[in-house]
Amino acid sequence: MHKDFREDAADAAARVLDTNWTGRYTVPATGLYPHQWSWDSAFVAIGTRHRNPRRARAELVSLLEAQWDDGRVPQIVYDLDRGDDYAPGPDFWAGVRGAPRPASGLVQPPLHAWSAWLVHCADPAGSTAEGFLHRVYPRLVRWHAYLHDRRAGAAGLPVIKHPWESGTDNSPLWDVALERVPPRARTPIRRPDLQHAGTGERPGARDYRRYYRLAETYRDAGCADDVAIGFAMVCPLFCSVLAVAELALGRVAATLSAVDGGATESDPGGHVAAAARLVAALDSHLWDDELGLYVALDDTTGEPVGRATVNGLVPLLLAAAPTPALAPGRAERLVATLTGPGFLGGGRYLPSTSRLDPAFDPALYWRGPAWFNMTWLLRRAVWALGRHDLAARLDEQTTLAVPERFPEYVDPDTGAGRGTRQFSWSAALSLDALL
Ligand code: 9YW
Fold it and tell me: Does 343 sit in the ligand 1 pocket, CB within 6 Å?
């Protein structure tokens, strides 16, 4: 990419992030998503760290301050002034105990420790002066402990209790389990989201009735994780991101013990061991040899969900890690699938669902469109493997960011913007890729 183009695009991305910054955190998009979202903030901090590392640190600290007593980091932390602008809003979760701030009882993929480590590395002096790692480390440890302990599934991998927890709401990975959820909710369903994106680009009414029903059931059980609510899924993206986050937390722990001579209780080896356990379980339970990628597992039935989605390629992030690494041959197979007809071999951009899957729809949210966060994750993975040719190919999506006004996602063939615009993680991750 031409230098001027890169600089102009990076400036435009930074402007989106400035606009969406509230003073304490960055909203994903001013209209559609007016609160703080968990994994959005982790992605946003990764981009913000380049130009404003102090703000990147504040982004993560404000999210972690909303951590529940049991260690969970909530999916959404609500701004009560914007309560009605997104549904379900704060009223839906009111009355659940253990949350220090109005928040959703659900979680999202645990990218935060990785983000915190990258944010620290962008400005070690400022981070150290603020005591950033000291502040976030104990909270990140409790967050991971919540997932390992309270969310432990039969395969030794954490489960998600709702499609919203995957970050990939209407992925076909959740179809079979959602079928079991009655499409009837007590709460009246409002759809303010449809004022900001086309109906054909958002999950449908039937999906929403099930999303609400499931969320109500979980909420009414006090968000207790030992109560079966009929939906407990193991997601390859969620698990591999947790393994990457454990490795990052290992680096945070090692840094802390080096700077304060052991005054902070930290256990670098424990985090690496946790990552190794996750990788081994991922390899033995989620690999689908026919599809050539990792799939989801239904923890309530023990059945794998043989659908090819970008979620199942994300474990490629672990292929280049010195220790632990994926089982022999898996990285090559994943790269073959990534470049094969279902993904990059079949069209220009990386689709969220394989083009070969019967549910593939280039306009429908997580069932086909190309998302900037998934492209960024895969770009990091192939770069670390030394496949710079593939990284450049994935980078082509970045060139769409400015002309399409930082869309939430794009058509995987034409690159046309879809969903909302001026979307924070599209800006943040473009900024990261451009610098
Ligand atoms: C929704 C905020 C969130 C993301 C999710 C994405 C979407 C909320 O937006 O979920 O209303 O559909 O699926 O990953 O965090 O950007």
Answer: no
Integer Cα distance of 211 and 131 in angstroms: 40
Task: Kindly give the number of the ligand 1 atom that is closest to the alpha carbon of 86.
Answer: 11
Tokens 């983000």 correspond to 115
Rounded Cα distance between 398 and 348, Å, is: 12
Q: Is the CB of 37 under 6 A from ligand 1?
A: yes
Predicted TM-score (pTM) of this structure: 0.98
Give per-residue pLDDT as tens, 157-205. Answer: 999 999 999 999 999 999 999 999 999 999 999 999 898 888 888 888 9
C-alpha 353: how far from chain center = 16
Nearest CA to ligand 1 atom 4: 167
Statement to judge: residues 329 and 345 lie in one domain: no
pLDDT of residue 262: 67
Q: H-helix or E-strand containing 418?
A: strand 417-418
- The reply to whether 394 and 409 lie within a common domain is no
Q: Is ipTM > 0.95 here?
A: yes
Three-state secondary structure readout of 224-290: CCCCCCCCCEECHHHHHHHHHHHHHHHHHHHHHHHHHCCCCCCCHHHHHHHHHHHHHHHHHHCEECC
Q: What is the tally of structural domains in the chain? A: 2
Is residue 296 domain-shared with residue 413, that is, in the same domain? no
